[in-house]
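Hi team,

Filling in the usual template for the complex we talked about on Friday. All components are listed, including any nucleic acid strands or ligand strings, so the model treats them as one assembly.

SUBMITTER: L.P.
PURPOSE: interface mapping
COMPONENTS: two
RESIDUES: 506
SEQUENCES:
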Amino acid sequence: MKKLLVLLFSFLTIAAHAAEPAEGGEFKPGDMITHHIADDYTWHFADGVVLYLPVILVDNGEVNVFSSSNFYNEAHDVVPYNGYVMEHGHIYKANAEGESIADYSGLYDFSITKNVASMFVSVALLFFVFFSIASSYKKNAGKAPRGMQSFFEPIIIFIRDEIAKANIGPKYERYMPYLLTIFFFIWFNNLLGLMPGGANLTGNIAVTLVLAAFTLLITVFSGNKNYWSHIFATPGVPVWLAPIMIPVELIGIITKPFSLMVRLFANITAGHIIILSLFSLIFIFESIAVGPLSVAFATFMNFLELFVALLQAYIFTLLSAMYFGGAVEEHHHDEHAHGEAH
Amino acid sequence: MQLVTPGIGLIFWQLVTFLIVLFLLAKFAWKPIMKALHEREASIEDALSAAEKAKLEIQSLKADNEKLLAEARLERDRILKEASDAGNALVESAKNKANEEGARMIAQAREAIENEKRAAITEVKNMAAALSLDIAERILRKELSNPAAQQTLAEDYIREVTLN
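RESULT (copied from the run log):
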């Protein structure tokens, strides 16, 4: 299985680059890696196996929907289409000569990109897995779990007991749907990202931004009197320090989810970059002899990434639960809750 | 820089998709799953506590049985003791009665013997008196013929009469 994975991965890497030397000549690992971890308008499974995804543009209120294949001619070169041009993985408004207009405003890009498509796949997978588990819970109610149910049940119970109950306390129940959803959403997408041809969804800052924003909003809206009094009148701090303390605490509200956003994004992206860099070595040295070494390291990294995929999902969920716990915590002012904030 | 610049499109799709996923999973997956887990845990909890209760009940029943058994044992001992006491008393009284009866019978026998003895003595005395009279009569009869012989005869008679 792992060999297959690595093999597929190396095919993919080679495939993506088979065409490049023909165009530009020299192999640039930086460009290749950036291209791989960034979003795209096409889904490149292998050389010649390309899925052209729909482009949706909102141009000053006017909606344009067309296939991203329109940006490519027969020779697979990028061409302007319908007054738009694609440059460095972004779509810009083009002038008559087919050059991008840098200061054009009002163009919003809502395309179903590779990441969005990958997310839809993961959502379908999530629905399939958890709806079937839910139905098997209804079918054999009160009995021992079976099949997929018995694989996911300990994880669900772990999230409930070790993450939610331990960090939120008695009010944990209402946060369970969110915690379970982010955990499995992040985990599934992390794993899908490791698949050959997979998109780097959880390594995209837009995705982690939204997830972190959810945690921020839930934290702020579930904050009780105790939580806000900690921010506006931190216990044990003299009143004259308030002008310093209040801004610091307010920034603290933002930095917590900000760290969540950066942590997930950076960890997943870094993993992808390392694996891609290891494969790049083969092309940098232009030697097949480097191949086994690269594959060995990349295999090791892949295993590490499998672990990181789970770990990051766990950390995101755990920290979210801690922030919720801090927001709903009742009166006792212990150092623990305060220590978590930083 | 492109890496750390979130794109509006992906933010939008992520927001919409995640909300839908959150809503649908919460309603159709997490709710029944959490409920089922909760119910199962509750039933296991109930079963365990029921088992614990049953164990305690059995223990108390056992203790009761033990108590009853001990009481029964005491009762038995008491009854046995009473019975043996009664038996002993019975034997004792029977013995006493037998002794008394024996003693009474012996006394009666003694009395009868005494009476017999007394009657016999009386009879001997009467016979001695009659003999004396008879001897005296014969002496008187012989006196007339021979005083010497009379004497001899009297002596003979006297010799004949021996008081036993």
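MY TAKE: The interface with chain A takes residues 2-15, 17-18, 20-22, 24-26, 28-34, 36-37, 39-40, 43 of chain B (CB under 8 Å). DSSP finds two helices and no strands in chain B.

Thanks, L.
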